Amino acid sequence: MPKEKQTTKKQEKYTLILDAAETLMKKKGLYSLNMDEVSYFSNLAKGTLYLYFRSKEEILAALALKARILLLAHFEKAVLNENQPIQQLKAIIHANYTFLKNNPLYYELVSFYEINDRETETEEMSAVILRITELVIGIIKNGQLAGEIDSRIDPSILSFTMWGMTVGIMQLLKVKAATISNHPNLSENIVLDNYIKVFLDGIK
Amino acid sequence: MPKEKQTTKKQEKYTLILDAAETLMKKKGLYSLNMDEVSYFSNLAKGTLYLYFRSKEEILAALALKARILLLAHFEKAVLNENQPIQQLKAIIHANYTFLKNNPLYYELVSFYEINDRETETEEMSAVILRITELVIGIIKNGQLAGEIDSRIDPSILSFTMWGMTVGIMQLLKVKAATISNHPNLSENIVLDNYIKVFLDGIK
Amino acid sequence: MPKEKQTTKKQEKYTLILDAAETLMKKKGLYSLNMDEVSYFSNLAKGTLYLYFRSKEEILAALALKARILLLAHFEKAVLNENQPIQQLKAIIHANYTFLKNNPLYYELVSFYEINDRETETEEMSAVILRITELVIGIIKNGQLAGEIDSRIDPSILSFTMWGMTVGIMQLLKVKAATISNHPNLSENIVLDNYIKVFLDGIK
Amino acid sequence: MPKEKQTTKKQEKYTLILDAAETLMKKKGLYSLNMDEVSYFSNLAKGTLYLYFRSKEEILAALALKARILLLAHFEKAVLNENQPIQQLKAIIHANYTFLKNNPLYYELVSFYEINDRETETEEMSAVILRITELVIGIIKNGQLAGEIDSRIDPSILSFTMWGMTVGIMQLLKVKAATISNHPNLSENIVLDNYIKVFLDGIK
DNA sequence: CATGAATGAGCGTTCATTCAT
DNA sequence: GATGAATGAACGCTCATTCAT
């Protein structure tokens, strides 16, 4: 068998496992993933899982990577649709929110690795965050050049800050969804817009 | 034995258990707390633990309450030291950061119950968060009266937003501590100050 | 305090405990009785229970004794209402069934000690069964004298047999209640009457 | 490894567990069976037990099924040895008694599931009882055709009654074994024969 | 490569009984 | 006599990982 073919087959199983894990986590949540079920739903023997992933944790990491990559793609797409730096930042925050809404599991995975300092965080994973950071930094720099963003703020620090604030707001929206929907003059969108307003006004 | 004395003794054991749990969590992290070790380190039989707490979860909740109360106290103290609303908000964010640095476990507990919507969240626990919220809302209103904060922003929404952003920044500082300290022109304080600046400028 | 008064008070607590145990068992079944709840519902400290009963098992035994005594009383009453030996035996079986229906817990206790060879079975408890046996033997002897019951059967053996058969039928009625009520031409009464018929015809 | 061989091996472990459970229950009684000991005596890790049985209860159910099947086999064999319906019924009762004597644990299991309405009773288990019932009903019908059994009695009701009575007598013989052997003119066989006589006379 | 049977430490919780006060 | 805090063995069950085949 040609090596290529083998690799393909290998890739297939790898994907099979990840898909099974993803489906299971969507159904039962991040924390109740267990290898028995991954084995069952991937139609692969339990031992086989360990040929493709060194541990359960590694499966999580792989999915978290996938989630980050998808998030980056959403950000990049959002940015392309806008011309003005300020609008681009706004678009990124909105994209973040849309991502959270459409892919709650993926967002949970992103947060999970963002909040907990996992030892399994690979360079590959960090690289994606780096690219997100660079994307934002680029926009900020453009904004500063265009005089729309306060030039005295260090772009990389600001991108850092923005990431932290945004993740915080997203978590708030996720966790306090019930609280928010009960309030008379509160809604997720209002909170989100308020955040965007404060943030954008703050960096002018 | 006088009843008072008994209550004191009972309180002592309660504290003993919480202390053991706290120590263990500081050593091994929030998630690896187990009742066997709590029993061992509190010098109490395992069954005894259940005389004071209905479940392991209840121990966590008790510690989370303790953490919230302490956080509130820090906020209140910080506010008292300042006169100007803007300075008070600043002081709260700084207090939050100090709290995180000095009591990482407590902060983790606050976040834990903030992020995960635990069913064990009692009214007592919610009440503390409410008081924090009201503290912040009060300051915002004062700021608006003094013309220092944009009056068009709804105070309760803003307090909500501020809480989300701040928690997000704190998490960032916690998780990315290593990353930050490696950067040449980055430091936790710079990130924090940048956040404060953006936030305060944003609400003017 | 006069000794009599003390004894009365002692008796009161004893009864208090039994009542609590009985109420609890009626609510949750024979097997889920636990000393914590007995303590709580009797308003007596847990240690106090052990001043009146050496063990949980002894509480059960005391209730089983009570149940047997009540059963005997029902039998005696049933017998008094009839003149003919055959009618008296019939009345006993009916009384047994009524007892089961009206006091399911008591019947369960009777069966429990009948089926399992408990080590706690006291002489007092055996004595009640003996009195039931003697009651039945007396009737059988009368029946034989009156020529209504086959004289070749040993009365004590027959009373023994009757007890076994009847307990068996009662259990069947209790356990298979659902099965019976589902059958088109079956009912508890039909099964009971059939048993009585077979039994009475069998001893003629 | 051929699949057949695997199945054999799997069957072996299954049997190993059941055997260990059986041995333990013979030694310590039905109720003190626990998974730790089953694990120890089967030379299998505790987790392994759960590969073959979903729960402890399922082990009990498996043994109860085994017991019922064996009982049915005894009944069928007993019936085959006789030609006359009455003799066949007699043989069934005797077989029941022999079974109780030779396999007290199995009998206890049969009773256990007969007395307690377990939720784990499977269709397979019910089916065996059904076959026993049908066996008896068939004999009764034959007896009625042959004019040896009162035709006015409904066969299914009678089989029901017979089962109840017989189980009752067997329990009596089991529990009161000591009492019986102490009596001067009592023996298990006398009680049994008396029961059989009463029953058979009663259905004529 | 692939399998899946086997492992066993680990878990949270219960509860009859004891005993110092 | 009365208390009730304390005990700790016991329990059924889970699950990530290993390894002989």
Automatic annotation (TrEMBL), chains A, B, C, D:
Report the domain of life of the source organism: Bacteria
Q: Which UniProt keywords apply?
A: DNA-binding
Gene3D superfamilies reported for this sequence: Homeodomain-like, Tetracycline Repressor, domain 2
* InterPro entries noted in UniProt: Homeodomain-like_sf (IPR009057), HTH-type_Tx_Regulator (IPR050624), HTH_TetR (IPR001647), Tet_transcr_reg_TetR-rel_C_sf (IPR036271)
- The residue ranges of the HTH tetR-type domain are 11-71
Q: What is this protein called?
A: AcrR family transcriptional regulator
- Quote any Pfam family the record assigns: TetR_N
PANTHER family noted in UniProt: ACREF/ENVCD OPERON REPRESSOR-RELATED (PTHR43479), ACREF_ENVCD OPERON REPRESSOR-RELATED (PTHR43479:SF11)
The Swiss-Prot or TrEMBL record marks DNA binding at: 34-53
